[in-house]
Specification:
- With 667 residues, the chain is mostly helical.
- Helices cover 74% and strands 1% of the residues.
- It has a two-stranded antiparallel ribbon.
- Strand 1 (367-370) and strand 2 (374-377) form a beta hairpin.
- The model is unreliable at 1-5, 330-344 and 659-667 (pLDDT under 50).
- Its main location: membrane.
């Protein structure tokens, strides 16, 4: 241990452990003392004793084991991939395991009794294979890899949420468990988990020296006669297995695998063995302390509050505190793109996209399923029976797509970060939190009140992002981490509200899913008007968007008032995000996809890129709403979730074929 401690300051670990131990003593210290003093009662039924022996202590053990596994898994991923953003959550591994368990619980429930670990491992492996397969051509660029992981995580998470919503009577308990519940009623989970982790830890210790070679770089590793690909494959396989086993046991618990290795590096750990061991210990201490805090604050409701959903409440502020102190080995140029796209005549592309949008809207309004006729076109103008239901939904979906596309383009232009979007940066989550507060605090909440709450929430997140990002020059790695932290923090609050079982949580979940069902024609037209009105200052200020992308110094030299322009543009982005979130929820990912679609068509100038992205976003959302309306008729599927399911494969294809995500020469 002295060798491990030589380059690591363990003070923080002992502090966290001490706090966790103190809190655990407050929870069950007196009962433990009575048991140690008097022994276990055999002749009478002692409720407090049973709770400690078969609930409190197993829960503490599972928390420590899960924290060990997640911290260790995150450290392996970050070392093997040389990526400070890698973790089971950001790589989509946990989401893949959770989706596999949801599918098994719905279609093959018997398998959960005998093979939960195998099912979770298969799901996690599929997610990881998808991420690595798509990024193999990118030489595993850190930003590209994490962005792909986030997109895959969103895709799998959206599919799992859709299955839960469609089968809520059967999967409600799985939803709460999937949020990361450490509640225990026996020692069964701990007894299953510790042998699995022991085997994987043992394999990792055997591979410490090969892992150390990866730090030197692939060239140096190959020159020593060792295959870096094989070492990386073995390391990532262990990390995936660790995360999958934890997910199968207690659900998805995020942030531990991301934060623990960061803390260890900031405390001075440099050797591979040191980082692995201390990451596991820090992860265990963090999860133990978090769970103890939750039990004390929740009181009698402790069994119903999922620890995984609340972990980010402590982990997010900690990550936000650590981000400015982190040093990234990879530096990505944010003011320029490393690839020159083929410049296409913007007007021709715009006309084609406009025609496509008109065709999509006309198709969605006139073609659908009917209770009497089945699949049919209706060109008769039958307003009372058909159009009064379809037209408002189509207008609302199109308006939301426009808003998200414009917000995404603004954010990517302002930050010089091609990965920026309302979804990635947590702005949609902020708007959703504002809506949640309104639902829980306002009696008879209206769409107008929810819109105000969404605007307030998105503005707070944007202001926080701008404050943190300005210090680092909007460096992509830090911006993504800040967005992940803020998004996870807000999602944890929303998840905690939803897991309470309150009737208002059902309303909140429906809004999160993003269904346009029931929207009025007035509300839909108002949303479209807002989107078009907000596009006017963007079109008139398109020069500022083009110039700001060149950097602050160049913008000032060209006569652009940087502060005022950024303030106005960020305000417009907040309004756009708030309006779209009220209509289709926070999960669409249209804000990330459509600017890339416009750029892939050769559009670099802001004014053409803006309009084409808006039309593409509106069309994509209309297609998603139409699919949700007809695929399981007469039941509804939410447009917000379906837009993620429809658009994410398109974005992944663009990422795998375009060079937009390649590293700069400094990477």
């Amino acid at each position: 241990m002295s060798e491990i401690q030589r380059n690591y300051n363990p003070a923080l670990f002992f502090t966290i452990t001490g706090v966790a131990l103190f809190l655990s003593w407050l929870l069950m210290g007196q009962d433990l003392q009575d048991i140690l003093s008097n022994g276990i009662s055999c002749d009478e039924y002692n409720v407090r004793e049973m709770l400690v022996l078969y609930s409190g202590l197993p829960r503490l053990s599972v928390a420590i084991l899960s924290g060990l596994a997640l911290g260790f898994s995150g450290a392996i991923l970050q070392l093997a991939l040389r990526n400070p953003l890698a973790s089971p959550t950001t790589m989509g591994v946990s989401a893949g395991a959770y989706l596999a368990l949801v599918i098994a619980g719905l279609f093959f429930p018997a398998t959960l009794v005998y093979g939960r670990e195998v099912i979770a491992l298969v799901g996690a492996g599929v997610a990881a294979a998808l991420v690595f397969g798509l990024m193999a051509r990118r030489d595993f660029s850190p930003i590209s890899l994490v962005l792909t992981g986030l997109i895959v995580s969103l895709y799998f998470g959206a599919l799992a949420s859709l299955l839960v919503l469609l089968n809520d009577r059967y999967l409600a308990s799985l939803f709460i468990w999937g949020a990361g519940s450490l509640s225990q009623q026996s020692w069964d989970v701990a007894n299953i988990l510790w042998p699995q982790l022991l085997v994987l830890f043992g394999l990792s210790m055997v591979m410490v020296r090969p892992f150390s070679l990866l730090v030197l770089g692939d060239g140096s590793t190959s020159s020593l006669g060792v295959s870096p690909g094989m070492i990386r494959f073995f390391a990532v396989s262990i990390a995936i297995a660790l995360a999958a086993f934890v997910t199968s046991a207690v659900g998805v618990i995020g942030f531990i695998g991301l934060v623990a290795p960061m803390i260890v590096r900031l405390c001075g750990a440099r050797r591979v063995l040191s980082q692995l061991i201390w990451s596991a210990l820090i992860g265990a201490a963090l999860l133990w302390m978090t769970d103890a805090v939750i039990q004390i604050l929740a009181g009698s409701l402790r069994e119903f509050v999922p620890t995984g959903a609340v972990t980010a409440l402590l982990g997010s502020p900690l990550l936000l505190f650590l981000i400015p102190r982190m040093k990234f080995e990879t530096v990505v140029q944010t003011n320029e793109v490393s690839v020159v796209w083929r410049q296409t005549a913007g007007l021709k592309v715009l006309i084609v996209m406009l025609l496509i949008s008109i065709g999509v809207v006309a198709f969605a309004v006139t073609f659908g399923r009917d209770a009497d006729l089945g699949w049919a076109f209706d060109l008769s103008g039958n307003w009372d029976d058909v159009y009064q239901w379809r037209v408002p939904r189509v207008i609302a979906a199109f308006s939301a797509g426009i808003m998200l596309a414009l917000a995404g383009m603004i954010l990517q232009r302002l930050t010089g970060n091609i990965m920026a979007s309302p979804e990635v940066l947590g702005i949609n989550a902020g708007a959703m939190m504002g809506i949640g507060v309104c639902i829980y605090l306002v009696v008879g909440v209206t769409p107008e009140i929810m819109a105000v709450g969404a605007l307030f929430g998105s503005s707070i997140v944007l202001a926080t992002l701008f404050a943190f990002g300005k210090r680092s020059g909007f460096q992509p790695e830090r911006m993504i981490l800040i967005g992940v932290a803020l998004g996870a923090l807000i999602d944890a609050l929303i998840g905690a509200l939803a897991a309470t079982g309150d009737l208002r949580s059902v309303h909140l979940l429906r809004i999160m899913a993003g269904s346009t069902y029931g929207v009025s024609l007035e509300a839909a037209c108002s949303a479209l008007l807002i989107g078009c009105v907000l596009m006017v200052p963007l079109l008139s200020g398109s020069r500022a968007l083009d110039v700001l992308n060149l950097g602050e110094k160049v913008s000032l030299a060209l006569g652009v008032n940087v502060r005022r322009s950024r303030f106005v543009l960020f305000a417009v982005a907040s309004c756009l995000t708030a309006g779209a979130t009220v209509l289709v929820g926070p999960l669409s990912f249209v804000g990330l996809m459509t600017p890339h679609i416009a750029r892939s068509l050769g559009l670099l100038q802001a004014r053409f890129q803006m309009v084409v992205a808006a039309l593409a976003g509106g069309s994509l959302m209309v297609v998603a709403d139409w699919i949700g309306r007809v695929i399981d008729y007469p039941y509804e599927m939410p447009a917000g979730l379906l837009s993620a399911l429809v658009g994410t494969p398109l974005l992944l294809i663009l990422m795998s074929r375009q060079n937009a995500f390649t590293r700069s020469s400094n990477a």
